[in-house]
Amino acid sequence: MSSCYHCNEPIPLDCRLTIQVNGENKAVCCTGCQAVANVILQGGFDGYYKYRQSSAEKPVEQANQPDNLYQAFDAPSVQEEFVRIDPTNQQHAADISIQGMHCAACAWLIEKYLTKLDGVDSIRVNLTNARAELLWDNSTIPLSQIFNAIKSIGYLPSPFKISQIETEYKNISKNYQKQLAVAGLFTMQVMMLAFALYFDVIEESFAYFFRWISLLLSAPVVLYSGLPLLTSAYRALSKGSVNMDVPVVFAIYSTFIASAYATYSNTGEVYFESATMFVFLLLTSRYLEHLVKTKAAITSANLLKLLPIVAFKLDNNTVSTVHANELKIGDIIQVKQGEQVPADGKLISKHCTVEEAQLTGESLPIDKNQGDIIFAGSLVHNQIIQVEVESVYLNTRLAQIAKHQERINQSKSPLANVADKMAKQATISVLFLSIATYLGWELLGENGLWFAVAVLVATCPCALSLALPTAISAASNALKVQGVLIRESHALEQADKLKVIAFDKTGTLTTGKFSRAQVHCSEDINQDELLKIVAAAEKASSHPLATGFADIDSSSIKLESVETIAHQGLRVSIDGVEYTIGSRSLFSRAERLLPNARWQNAQIYVFRQTTCIGAIELTDELKSSSIECMQELPTQKVILSGDHSLLVDKIAATLGIEFHKGLTPEAKRQKLQQLQDEYGSVAMLGDGVNDSIVLATADISLAMDEGAELSKYKADVILLNSQPIGVAKLVKMSQRLNRILKQNFVWAIGYNALALPLAVFGILTPWMAVIGMSASSLIVVSNSMRLLKR
Amino acid sequence: MNVIYVLIPLAIVIIVVALVLFFWAVKKNQFDDLDRQGHDILFDDDKPQDK
Q1: Where are the alpha helices (DSSP H) in A619-698?
Q2: CB burial class (10 A; 0-12, 13-18, 19+) of residue B50?
Q3: B-chain residues within 8 Å CB-CB of A125?
């Protein structure tokens, strides 16, 4: 099978679409890809295809999205929030986040394409953050046109406001960079001088000069670059506790002060290079750690926009898209399942389940009844609801909370917590040990200071503290290149201990694009009419099966009401007649009759009042990497599907794995818990809203990037290319990571254990301790970097 | 060997200049996106383009 020129996905059999590349016809898989590729090629940006390192994402089908999608962003009231206007020349500036960027070629393409537009003054794309900074002239080109231009080359822009925490992180990064540069450059100089001093390669008369120069050069390192260590130690001490930085600071400053005194009085020894090298190496590890933290913060900020900006307003049964800002009190809005509510308001629909995790941190869904207040930012679980707006945008509860505290998930992995605890106990014993060493040598009539410093340096858990962050950041970077985004690092640490991996079927193992295989209907309705009714009803649903009806024109049918029956289906009324459309479980309602035996395999049943008038069979295809994924995974595999049809059996047989079908979300969760009790650690791959509960229960949860926001919100890992093979990559990387971690820990702890007695008994002098420690840290870092290689 | 009294201070001056340049680069956000800049050379226009 050939693959699409633009997105590299296999081309469907009945597809005959092509594009012209340098006079040659190349096949593409869909009209979306064709449109995007044409825009790129006609703009003269064929360099993009030449140099890109990963294939493009399949663009969103144009037909599924309204044209005026970005119109709302032109309103000054909306822009007020994320646009900065230069008062002198009225130039507009905004930060936007861009979805779908994978490599340098994407960034180049966006920059080149946009700067060609009239009115765009400059755009700077940041690939690391998936963001761009845009400067434009609002009188020449409205923002919505710029957004449409980005969309036309296959990326999804959204406005974005950089949070306080991010700005703070960025400042810390910059400080680290400067401090590192100072430490690095000066340490090199000091070491050069120290080499001359140690090995007596210079005449005696220069030694005095060299010592003063060393003092001069190491002062900025210790006093400026050492600041983060000093403040962190001070913070711990002022709270009456100790952290790893306390002995470090003792070692650095006692070495520096004693050496400075020795220089001044021209007696004894100097160890400036030990102090500066120590600062440099520790700072390096702090910086690496900070980078990992920043990356995690940026990723989650990009994924979760605090408030949904677009609202769907309902006026006399027509839905219009407006900005949440333009809603007025008393307006009625419609919110689909899996979406966030854009404003606070009163529930008009009879009943619904929402999740208020963003507001309360409580992730269990809550039942709401007609008249209850629904808060903005709540996630709607199982229904399409209508809400009467009561307070808007910045007055909503969520915005109020957000104003007071911009918080961030700083979840620490269990391994890091254990490391922290151990380090704390070790720190206290090290401090005592060095005091004991000092006193011991003083009693023997020697200068005990250098022995005590050697103990402090030799026991510095520098390599130990580098072991985890470097390995994790190397592994998650390597995985990101392969299309696996780690959000919680515990997933990466523990994936090798998985016993069972559970898969959702639709949208996870299969493409989730349904086509109708067969339509059955009873005598009193014809097929077209049946399909039209179903299509009209499914338009209002975000259930994956709804995609099977997207091609049917149902404009002739007016829905009078739509109601979701939780996890079972939809109830609509058309011309006063009530239709129920949904899964087989609808039959369990007592008044329904069992269907004709030959309709057993259908996924969707249609009822008029209480009689079954039709059934529809849908099929979906396996994703290209599903089979390979099963072969590569060493663990038990099982399908947990909400689908009850024979499709599940067929797919499970093809893949050769166990399956459980016809599960409600709650049953999925129970099944998963059973698996956990029986086998141990269980991972879950899912994509839909109905998987969110089971994803929260699993030890490691993986969501598809194409999946519903709600499932991504919960997931520890996101598979960027939405291919299940990502889980195999994760497991493999986790095995490598744990092997490397073990080596790192054994080495670092072994080194400290070995160096300690040598330092106590004076065999190890401070400079040897520092060189030993640096070598040990370097070994750990380069060992971690091996993870970057495939 | 007395030349060392000139050379070492000279070396220090050069380092200070390098640091000033580096600080300037940090201030101008040159280190924000390290994933990308290495590839930019590939995209330089081979033929002059009219804008």
Answers
A1: 626-632, 646-655, 665-679, 692-697
A2: exposed
A3: 36
- Mean pLDDT value across residues A558-573: 74
Beta-carbon contacts of residue A538 (< 8 Å; ≥ 6 apart)? A545, A546, A548, A549, A570, A581
Cβ atoms of A663 and A671 within 8 Å: the answer is: yes
Strands (E), A656-765: 658-660, 682-686, 700-704, 717-719
Question: Per the structure block, which two tokens stand in for A394?
Answer: 């910045």
| B contact test, residue of A127, A188, A191 with most B CBs within 10 A | A127
Domain ranges of chain B: 1-27
- Per CB-CB distance under 8 Å, the chain A contacts of B6 are none
- The percent of residues above 90 in pLDDT, for chain A, comes to 8
- Distance of alpha carbon B33 from alpha carbon A172, whole angstroms: 16
φ/ψ (deg, to 5) at A594: -70, 145
Closest CB to B19 among A127, A185, A203: A185
H or E stretch covering A32: helix A31-42
Q: How far apart are CA A530 and CA A604, in angstroms?
A: 12
Domain A515-619, CATH: 3.40.1110.10
Fold of A310-395: 2.70.150
Nearest-CA distance B28 → chain A (Å): 10
CB contact under 8 A, B39 and A186: no
A717-719 and A484-486: which strand pairing? Answer: antiparallel
| 3-state DSSP of A192-210 | HHHHHHHCCCCCHHHHHHH
pLDDT of residue A399: 60
Six token digits for residue A356? 């208020």
Q: Is the pLDDT of residue A64 over 50?
A: no
| Mean per-residue pLDDT over chain A, rounded | 79
Which residues on chain B are in Cβ contact (under 8 Å) with A182? 19
ipTM: 0.85
Which residue of A lies nearest to B27 if distances are taken between CA atoms? A174
pLDDT tens digit string along B1-51? 788 889 889 999 999 999 999 999 999 888 877 777 777 777 766 555 544
Class of domain A66-161 (CATH, top level): alpha beta
Query: H helices within A244-271, ranges in order?
Result: 245-265
Q: Which residue of B has its CA nearest to A193?
A: B8
Q: Which of A51, A116, A202 sits opposite B42 (nearest CB)?
A: A51
Nearest to B26 among A105, A177, A217 (CB): A177
Q: Reply yes or no on whether the pLDDT at A365 is more than 80.
A: no
> Cβ A177–B51 below 8 Å, yes or no?
no
Q: For A350, phi and psi rounded to 5 degrees?
A: -65, -40
% of chain A residues with pLDDT over 70: 83
Label the pairing between strands A682-686 and A658-660: unpaired
The confidence score (pLDDT) of residue A405 equals 33
Output the pLDDT for position A697.
81
**Residue A303 binned pLDDT confidence (cut-offs 50, 70, 90):** low
From the list A378, A380, A389, the residue with the least C-alpha distance to A356 is A378
Q: Nearest Cα to A747, choosing from A462, A464, A454?
A: A464
Cβ B6 vs Cβ B14: under 8 Å:
no
Cα gap A389→A534, rounded to integer Å: 30
Dump pLDDT digits (tens) for A131-187. 888 888 888 888 888 888 888 888 888 777 666 677 888 889 999 999 999 999 999
Strand partners, A311: A322
Q: Looking at A13-27, A191-205, A462-476, A709-723, which range is the least confident one?
A: A709-723
